[in-house]
Amino acid sequence: MHPLVLGGVECGVAAVAALIAAGPRWRRWLGLVLGCACVALPFLARPRAPLLCFVIALVAVVAVMRSIDLARDDSRLPWPRRLWLMFAVFDVRRVERRPPGLDLAALAAVALATAIAAGGFALGVHVANQQVGAAHWALRWGGGVVFAVAAFEAGTRALPLGYGLLGLRPPPLHDAPYLSRSMSEFWGVRWNKVVGSWLRANCFAPLARRRRATLGVIASFAASALLHWYLVVVALGLKWSLVMAAFFLVQLLFLAAERLLAVRRWPTAAARTWTLGIMLAASPLFIEPMIRLVDPLV
């Protein structure tokens, strides 16, 4: 099935799951089963266009996450809000009202981040592919890091702009991860607060309440590794999905090391150098699979 047609089917299944998942527990669990069924659909895509397969796999991941949210929510959300939640990249239950308007400063930040992302992409793909040896990999991974960070920054700043015109303020989505003073601050406070807050609510918090906080951290990173493994295995196959999963599992070693080294008590400059250095050292595990989604020469 063509990926675009498959994506439409997937969205239809997710919509039905959202409409069902309200009220009695059996309905919410039925919605969860339907939402989870979406994970099988991307494997049926033909032709296997990596980027399109990645996108429809991402839709499936969102469907599973939101189906879990709805299964755990007994507040009887009205059906339009359930549909909105199913297809939103953030938790719409946390949206606040604000005066409608365009944030010009945020718009300028989006434009700047987009330009930086474009430069990083050009460096990591087009320029890198004209080089050989160490220069190729340095440009590929360095440009890839710039692209990934700037593109995510642009996306998370652009989304609130549209909602702001409607008089809505989404919950915080991202918070300058390059200012992190520790790995725990990077992952727990600043980077991708959408997924971070979901993992905290569904993986960390249930175990932390049972005085198993360390196990909660392990569960969170294991879930993140599984999520990213799925996205990449659908698009690129097993080899690169394992590389991607390794990026998230190795973070547990870094977190343990920084606890032993008491990085939180270091001077700000040293702590930030530690955090950025560790992330850059591990980044090829993340960047290489992501570049392979868009690089026609691999």
Helices and strands, with pairings:
Blueprint: H1 3-20, H2 25-37, H3 50-72, H4 79-87, E1 96-97, H5 104-127, H6 133-165, E2 168-169, H7 183-190, H8 193-208, H9 213-236, H10 238-249, H11 251-260, H12 268-282, H13 284-292
Antiparallel strand pairs: 1-2
Largest sheet: 2 strands, antiparallel
Mean pLDDT: 93
Helix content: over 70%
**Form type:** globular
Q: How many domains?
A: 3
Helical run tally: 13
Element-level helix/strand string: HHHHEHHEHHHHHHH
For the biggest β-sheet, the strand order reads 1-2
> Strand percentage, roughly?
under 5%
**How many strands appear in the DSSP assignment?**
2
Uncertain segments are none
Q: Report the structural category.
A: mainly alpha
Q: CA-to-CA gap between the ends?
A: 24 Å
Task: Describe, in plain words, how this protein is organized in 3D.
- This protein is an all-alpha fold and 298 residues long.
- The chain folds into 3 domains: 3-88, no CATH class; 96-173; 175-298, no CATH class.
- The protein has helices spanning 3-20, 25-37, 50-72, 79-87, 104-127, 133-165, 183-190, 193-208, 213-236, 238-249, 251-260, 268-282, 284-292, and strands at 96-97, 168-169.
- The two termini are 24 Å apart.
- The relative contact order is 0.10.
- The mean pLDDT is 93.
